[in-house]
Design goal:
The chain is mostly helical. The protein folds into 3 domains: 2-32; 54-177, Peroxidase, domain 1, CATH 1.10.520.10; 185-315, Peroxidase, domain 2, CATH 1.10.420. Helix content is 49%, strand content 2%. It is built from 15 helices and 2 strands. A two-stranded antiparallel ribbon has the order 1-2. Helix 3 (54-68) packs across helix 6 and helix 12 crosses helix 14 (291-299). Mean pLDDT is 91; it is low at 1-19 and 21-39. The structure holds protoporphyrin IX containing FE (HEM) and 2-acetamido-2-deoxy-beta-D-glucopyranose (2 copies). Residues 71, 74-75, 77-78, 81, 113, 115, 179-181, 183, 188, 202, 205-206, 208-209, 211-215, 218, 255, 278, 280 line the site of protoporphyrin IX containing FE. Substrate binds at residue 179. Ca(2+) 1 binds at residues 83, 86, 88, 90, 92, 104. Residues 1-40 form the signal peptide. InterPro entries: Haem_peroxidase, Haem_peroxidase_sf, Peroxidase_pln, Peroxidases_AS, Peroxidases_heam-ligand_BS, Secretory_peroxidase.
Length: 336
Amino acid sequence: MAACAAMVNNKMIMRNSNKNAAVLLLIFLFLSSSTSTCKAHLSSHFYDHTCPNALSTIRSAIRTAVSRERRMAASLVRLHFHDCFVQGCDASILLKDSPSITSERNAFQNNASVRGFEVIDSAKAEVEKTCPGVVSCADILALAARDASVAVGGPSWSVKLGRRDSTTASLTLAEAQLPRATDDLQKLISNFAGKGLTAEDMVALSGAHTLGQARCLTFKDRIYNGTGSDIDAGFASTRQRRCPATGGDENLAALDLVTPNSFDNNYFKNLIQKKGLLASDQILFSGGSTDNVVSKYSRSPATFKSDFASAMIKMSEIDLLTGSAGQIRKICSAIN
Ligand code: HEM
Ligand SMILES: *[C@@H]1O[C@H](CO)[C@@H](O)[C@H](O)[C@H]1NC(C)=O
Ligand SMILES: *[C@@H]1O[C@H](CO)[C@@H](O)[C@H](O)[C@H]1NC(C)=O
């Protein structure tokens, strides 16, 4: 990001062209060649020569995993999201606790719910067999999210590659920056804005909740304390059956009650009927500024899918390490 900002400054300085500016320009050029976090370095052909089979190897690992367990598609999409929102899409979420790492896996928003690590590890191991040390874990996460979407009938998109892996993780940033089901609309909007994503992107991306499951403890308050104008009474009592007021915290319920295993726009139709599972789902359609986006996606599955794809591309390019920054890990769960 810093390098990209410097490039913009260069152009402004050239227009002013005076002596001081020329010196500044040289400094900026030096800085931008030595800093390496810039989206411009990505390419969808990044591994064409260095690891031509990488994409097909990863795709088949993801297909196998999803055919074994359909929910894995949801888990892999979420894993990429939770990677990108903490230090950028740098595979920091994959690092386990070690003397130098305090793992993000233990963050409140991740522990006991983020999954799919072994699928990424095995895709990485397959790729390492033919091209050791070439393909980053961060790129594998981005490709896995796309391949998972496709595997359950969701949209496809072209993933630009060239991300590198972090040598650090941050439990503190994870707890501070990953959204929570209890966040209000303003907080959600400003959280996503902080990552360069608009409110509309946020609504499209929340449509990932057309897939997967949530634990009782994440929606218990809503199904017992929600008011009639906020939650459909029949839906609340259905969900209470497997989510008692005390206990049962780990019991699961589908985020999309209609079609939990396929990628469609029922999630948005549910919101209009006040049948969103999480408070953070229903808040997207609660009389606020995002209501119109929810309505639009509830009417047009095609618009939802294409906006979801665009927003996933944006999300997958948050604060990347590229060039010679970071490293290509040998195994995804530990630094080299
Ligand atoms: C808008 C803010 C968001 C909040 C507050 C939120 C919160 C949650 C929560 C609480 C769960 C259940 C976790 C548990 O059981 O503990 C969940 C699941 C999930 N989230 Fe989100 N989420 C948000 C946005 C997103 C985005 C942007 C994506 C992806 C693009 C996403 C993808 C998923 C998926 C696929 C699942 C199901 C995972 C599985 O079944 O393994 N979420 N989310
Ligand atoms: C997850 O984190 C919460 C709060 O940080 C903690 O109370 C809980 O014991 C943790 N659960 C697991 C399974 O590690
Ligand atoms: C309902 O709200 C009350 C008051 O905030 C709270 O003490 C209680 O734990 C909530 N019930 C559930 C099931 O979360």
